[in-house]
Amino acid sequence: MNMKKVLAYVAVSLLGFSSIAQAATDKKDNITPSQSAIKDLIEMSKQIKSLNYTLYFGVYNTTGYTAYRFNNYFVNDIRYAELSNLDGPVYNVYLKGDLIGNSSYALKGTTFNVLPNVFNANFSKLSQNYLMAKTGQARVADKEAVVYDITNKYSNLYSYRLAIDTTTKLPLKVDLLYRDLVSNSYTILNSFSTIYLELGMDQQSLAKIQNAVINTNSIFGSSVDQNLKNKFEQIVNIPFLPPGFTLKSNNEVSMVGNSLIANESTSNSNDKQLMLAQTYSDGLFSFTIYVSENEVNTNDHYYWQQGETTLYAEDYAKRKLIIVGQIPLSLAKGIINSVTVKNSQGNYSHPTGFGQQLNTQQ
Predict the structure, then answer these.
(1) How far is 73 from 109, CA to CA, in rounded Å?
(2) If you average pLDDT over residues 194-215, what whole number do you get?
(3) The pTM is what?
(4) What CA–CA distances, in Å, run from 315 to 18, 198, 203, 297, 299?
(5) What is the pLDDT of residue 7?
(6) Number of domains comprising the chain
(7) Are strands 340-343 and 319-325 parallel, antiparallel or unpaired?
(8) Among the ranges given (54-68, 200-214, 253-267), the one the predictor scored with the smallest mean pLDDT
(9) Which of 169, 198, 219 is the last residue of a domain?
(10) Which domain holds residue 88?
(11) Exposed/middle/buried for 95, CB within 10 Å: 0-12, 13-18, 19+?
């Protein structure tokens, strides 16, 4: 047996021994494979927030490829972070403790959303509604990683596949997947892939974050206005939400044509109408339901998809109903179909019944 074969045999043997040893440890501690995966993902969440590191990564989606840099530092119990694009005009998003916002010239609403949702997930809570499992090994950014799958137990929501660095426990690759239940095939909707991971703190970058001017007005509120909630519930009732989804925030927006505009002052059009909006989330995915405050005489029925984002709109019982969010089209339609519209003549359910699927082949 030559030296190359010996080294290969030793490498495979050590890898197998490591897996067996881990399995033996889990068995000794009475930890199931699922509990072990949850434990690892919780550890990943801690490392994301507390380690000092810089991630250079790319995001692939339906609009193409974009490169970014993410700095994360933890100093005197305060977290400092910066997300910057590496192509085109310079754009930065900052985090200083509990304060998050864009640079002073930024557009409203764009924050750390380019990072996968798993970066801010509470996996202990998510484990109530999601299956989490180790599914293999991978090599990303010249580092060995363990692969995990995160799939919803009850609803046809999107799934995540993560590759986590075995040393730092940081996520190196995150794919957002859609499973077609008919063909049992998967489509990658969005892919986060690390190019280079650098540990440690760069003092110049830290100073830049600490001295950054943050436009806090660029962030939408995340609180629930009880008056708006009451007004929303006087118009519609939503009996069906996927398990784990709860109301996180609400708002009042304007709609001009088919465009939803958060700031009413941006348009003086006589065509605009007020919409009540409620955002729901399970801690991993989210969607917003819009309903017209006033009755409408239109009969709109359309949908739109780009990557993981779905928009489905339908008018019935003289109300305009729209849902926008990170959910598959069939689920978006199912939620809208469950809505009961209230008016002076009584309550009106969807004419085709709850849970009807949309034929997207027409």
Answers:
(1) 24
(2) 92
(3) 0.83
(4) 58, 51, 55, 9, 5
(5) 32
(6) 2
(7) unpaired
(8) 253-267
(9) 219
(10) 33-219
(11) buried
